[in-house]
Amino acid sequence: MNVVVGGVVFAFDMTKRLQAIGLAAKVDAQHLCAIPAVCVSSSLK
Amino acid sequence: MIRETRGVFAAWAAFALTVLFFAAPAVGAVRSNPPRTSFLVNTSKSTIAVTLKLGVPASAFMQKWGLPDYGGTLEPGKIEMLWSRTTRASDAWAVVRLAGASSTKITEVRFGGSFRTLQGDRRGTGLALFLKHWPHHGAITPVSRAGVQVE
Predict the structure, then answer these.
(1) CA-CA distance, A25 to B79, in Å (whole number)?
(2) From edge to edge, which strands make up the β-sheet containing B115-117?
(3) A chain contacts of residue B51, beta-carbon cutoff 8 Å
(4) Which of A32-36, B35-39, B43-47, B137-141 bottoms out in mean pLDDT, i.e. has the lowest?
(5) Is B145 in Cβ contact with A14 (below 8 Å)?
């Protein structure tokens, strides 16, 4: 889940531990998938 | 003076690399570790390590985090740079989105390296404690990908 404080997104994993931060336009911040390891699904080859 | 000159040179070198990077997208993926530095997050200024914020050139991020391990289209419709511990995106520790293929302006940032807030929050801080530190926080919003809650 995300908690937005000021202009920063704080992203918590499913165990409710803070894992990542994000910056995004105000309209997108609340729903920004901010934890890189779980939010970027593309595979690099 | 020397330090200043070197700083300007580094900025230009990073910019040039950015241009080359996107002139030839999908550069062979390499890997990197996040910096050991714990970056200070300023919530009122929306900054990371003072200088990293939306709207700055990608070179600012390269100066702090090093060269990205991948650049190009990772997700549909997005031009992004990715830093990852391995050649798999699932081991990514940072992703930034650029305004477009012809722009180095950053429009979105995700960072899972080491950071801290002025209230002492860092990776691993529990949600309940965090909320005590920030009584005027926004809503707590679940985030889903493909119908599955991931955050």
Answers:
(1) 16
(2) B47-48, B39-42, B115-117
(3) none
(4) B137-141
(5) no
